[in-house]
Amino acid sequence: MNAVTTTLPSTLKLKIDLTDEQFFKMCQKNRDYRFERTASGEILIMPPTGSDTGRRNVKITTQLDIWNSENNLGKGFDSSTGFTLPNGAERSPDVSWVKIERWNALTPEQQEKFAPICPDFVVELRSPSDSIKDLQDKMQEYIENGAQLGWLIDRKNKRVEIYRPSQDIEILENPTSLSGEDILPGFVLDLKQIM
């Protein structure tokens, strides 16, 4: 018997018509994968991150959670959380945060599934298999759908792209920390163990 091998792209893209409920159930029954759905209905299937990327991602999530626990200004989320953006896309940022008043305006049912809200703050940490162009497009989509601040952390090139509404993208070369500005007042992300 001859073995057949094939190389699949790092992210699979499928066009399947699913209702919001069907998509949610598919995600729940296949927790070993990360699913997102574009505004046009294309389903993206992404493999789990590598261990090193996951380790670095938890550093970001932990720092945000410590700040948030001290300030109680919102709710923080990890990469397993899905949100339904105003344009209809269902996305899962690596790290995200929503202001408390916006979160509390959602019903318990909305909070339980893919909340119909764009986070106020998002982070994408580029893993070795990620396309920088795809991540930049995703960051732009967050901003266009209501995010107030976004960080694209590109470890490969040792830089961070900062996204804000109605502003040009700011690029920082090899930064050691990032400020949460007025969106996350007093939050400073230490990048030493992340970059």
Account of the 3D structure:
- This protein has helices at 20-29, 51-71, 100-104, 108-112, 132-144; strands at residues 12-15, 34-37, 42-46, 74-77, 83-84, 90-91, 95-99, 121-125, 149-154, 159-163, 170-173, 177-179, 188-190.
- By secondary structure, the chain is of the alpha+beta class.
- It has a single domain (49-190), classed as tt1808, chain A.
- The strands form 4 sheets. The protein has a 6-stranded mixed sheet, sandwiched between helices. The protein has a 3-stranded antiparallel sheet with strand order 1-3-2, with no helix packed on it. A two-stranded antiparallel ribbon has the order 5-6.
- Strand 12 (177-179) and strand 13 (188-190) form a beta hairpin.
- The chain is globular, with a radius of gyration of 17 Å.
- It starts with 11 loop residues before the first strand and ends in a 5-residue tail after the last strand.
- The relative contact order is 0.13.
Itemize the secondary structure elements and their pairings.
Layout: E1 12-15, H1 20-29, E2 34-37, E3 42-46, H2 51-71, E4 74-77, E5 83-84, E6 90-91, E7 95-99, H3 100-104, H4 108-112, E8 121-125, H5 132-144, E9 149-154, E10 159-163, E11 170-173, E12 177-179, E13 188-190
Parallel strand pairs: 8-9
Antiparallel strand pairs: 1-3, 2-3, 4-7, 5-6, 7-8, 9-10, 10-11, 12-13
Radius of gyration: 17 Å
Number of helical segments? Answer: 5
CATH superfamily: tt1808, chain A
CATH topology call: tt1808, chain A
Instruction: Give the helix/strand class.
Output: alpha+beta
Low-confidence stretches: 4-8
* Level-1 CATH class name: Alpha Beta
In CATH, the architecture is: Alpha-Beta Complex
**Fraction of helical residues:** 25-40%
Largest beta sheet: what is the strand line-up? 4-7-8-9-10-11
Largest sheet: 6 strands, mixed
Distance linking N and C termini: 46 Å
Beta-strand content bin: 25-35%
Give the tally of structural domains: 1
Number of strands: 13
**For the residues shown, what is the average pLDDT?**
89
Could you spell the SSE succession in H and E letters? Answer: EHEEHEEEEHHEHEEEEE
Principal-axis shape? globular
